[in-house]
Amino acid sequence: MNPAIEKPRMPSNAASAAGSAKPTLLFVDDEERILRSLRMLFAANYRVLSTTDGNEALEILKREKVHALISDQRMPVMAGVDLLRQAREIAPNTMRLLLTGYSDIDAIVGSINDGEVFRYINKPWNADDIRSIVGEAAEIALGLDRPAAPAPAQQAGSEPMSILLIDDSRDTASELSALIRESLPQNFGLEWATGVSEAMSVLEQKNVSVVVSEVRVGGEDMTPFLKTLKRFKPHIVTVVLTSFRDTAQLVGLINQGQVHRVLPKPMRKTMTLRSIQSGIDRSREIQSRPEIARRHKVEAPKQDVDPGLLNRIRGLFQRTAKPSDGHPGA
Asked: pTM of the prediction?
């Protein structure tokens, strides 16, 4: 027996809201009390739709312009990650957010790799925080609806491009180098760094589009560097290749680093190659359409970044900044 499906709910002033410029939000949660709370939070400023079933949510996305989709993870009909993955295909400009009270490592990785979520929101939420996060997502989606300025003409050619590996494993470097050499065009090469200082030297000298990084290299936590990198160079796409499975760390990499993929070690060649190729495509898209760099805007770090590291990265990227970088400033 199929569970009952709640039909999409609109505010009481639905007629006027539907014809206004209010952004549309779609909430998906199998608990009606959660949906009621969310509607109360957002109905005044948004056109709010909601359903208890992921399949119904997909139907809504097919017929409605939805600016932000906010889904719970653990639902009986369809898990949130599965919903976000399918939503990305149906409505790629809809911002996707995952809402859950469970520390589910597989869901977190899935939300990165399959759903490409904008933010991961923990239950119970803070009302001001969720309003701010969802509001930012909706504003970004509205911006994607506006006509884009013509992209600057780019010469199609063979400008050398680099993949930067940050890892202290020689075996990983050898495997990845062989994979890139065998599978990518000749203008792509691998640069290998075993720490932040070496990585920064590469970034200063080479045209890097994708960074492949472990989360700990030589005992050093690389996540502050990866998060700061995304703040200053949104077109550089990060793929995390790691044996670590820390929930809090991965949530931070979503919200504060907008990592593109998280892959397990030992390296799986096909999965790694597809992730790098997807990262290259994403990097090119951001550079050719600077307005979508906002889609990859990161949350402010929850912890203070080491001032020395921050200054070094800021100085490096100010020297090498281009108009298409979407530079966020301090």
From this structure: 0.78
